[in-house]
Amino acid sequence: MTATPSPTAGPAAAPADDGSRADPRAGLRDSAFLRACRREPVPHTPVWFMRQAGRALPEYRALREGTAMLEACATPDLVTEITLQPVRRFGVDAAIFFSDIVVPLKAVGVDLDIVAGVGPVVAEPFRTAADLDRLPALTPDHVPYVTEAVGALVRELGSTPLIGFAGAPFTLASYLVEGGPSKNHARTKALMHGDPALWERLLARLAGITEAFLRVQVDAGASAVQLFDSWVGAVPAADYRARVQPHSARVLAGVADVPRIHFGVGTGELLHDMGQAGADVVGVDWRVPLDEAQRRIGPGRAVQGNLDPTLVFAPTEVVRAETARVVAEGQRCEGHVFNLGHGVLPETDPDVLARVVDHVHELSGAA
Ligand code: CP3
After folding, report:
1. Catalytic residue flag (residue 155)
2. Is 308 labeled as catalytic in the residue annotation?
3. Is 51 near ligand 1, meaning CB less than 6 Å away?
4. Is 292 helix (H, G, I), strand (E, B) or coil?
5. Domain locations in the chain?
6. Considering the chain, what is the average pLDDT of its residues?
7. Whose CA is nearest to atom 24 of ligand 1?
8. In the CATH scheme, what is the code of domain 41-258+268-279?
9. Which is the closest atom of ligand 1 to the Cα of 117?
10. pTM for the structure as a whole
11. FRET partner for 231 with CA separation of 20 to 30 A, picked from 9, 149, 190, 341?
């Protein structure tokens, strides 16, 4: 399945005449995505989509049939193929590694599953200091299938960057403490405030696991990483700075050799502090216009986002107008990676996403 580069692998398979044929790493280094992350001039605004690999694609559903999510994540051939599917279909400027934020927790032995239509469910939620024993440090030997799949992908992708990712300590803690998805993260915040010492130990432990998981991906060849703190928007800024940011900062410092994207939902009030955690690129959801987000984040950072993922269901002219607005706002920022404001919704028509990619490229200068 992964032995030879596919002739349909889109930009990854296209020979370049800029010298990158001789050295594919040069083409990679100069890719629009990595240039935007570094806030350098770009040939066009790069675009990829959070959750671009997944249920919106019929070819994904076909491949996943009969294989549980976590089993798929531990099968390098499947991971490789699923990661490449959206690159071929959409012509996006970057691939994101197919995995899940709970994979490293499962790998160190936490009893959890990903339940279709629900999300991660933890058999025994985290409650007391004794539960720290269930969170040993992660070593590369826990995730040999990640090293293998990243290596295969880097070979297949050529000059198209691969983004590695992990869940940030707060968001992982939320799943562990709540035992599953949560609307208001009540138990998580009760632990943060009710037993601050245990909270510190939990987040420190999770930061170590997350940093090690990202390190494995970067050492295997990932060109950039995204640290998902999806649910941190539930936390007020003062608590974020005191009880969350230092742990995320430690993770980001551990992979400073590649561009680092840091993203959460509903984080309008946290954008500056998330940038200060050490990210090179701050992901913005659809609630804050990108130029306003850049003002809040401050100088020295690029932005990523932020087309409302529900707008793909609106009439074509609305999608086009909103795409153009996001591109224009991004052009007023120091660097811009086009994305949705959160993940692709499963009901999304893939053709709409393909047209968004083409439109972003047309608007921003690609031939
Ligand atoms: O972006 C990509 O294409 C790469 C793959 C990816 C998955 N999960 C695959 C997946 C990524 C980057 C993630 C990250 C992730 N997982 C996050 C952070 C991103 C975000 O959306 O904020 C979070 C919070 C999770 C936890 C999780 N895992 C949820 C909420 C769900 C959805 C539950 C459901 O079924 O509605 C999952 C499962 C999951 N992870 C699926 C996929 C493709 C769906 C499971 C399936 O296809 O059977």
Report:
1. no
2. no
3. yes
4. helix
5. 41-258+268-279
6. 94
7. 230
8. 3.20.20.210
9. 35
10. 0.93
11. 149
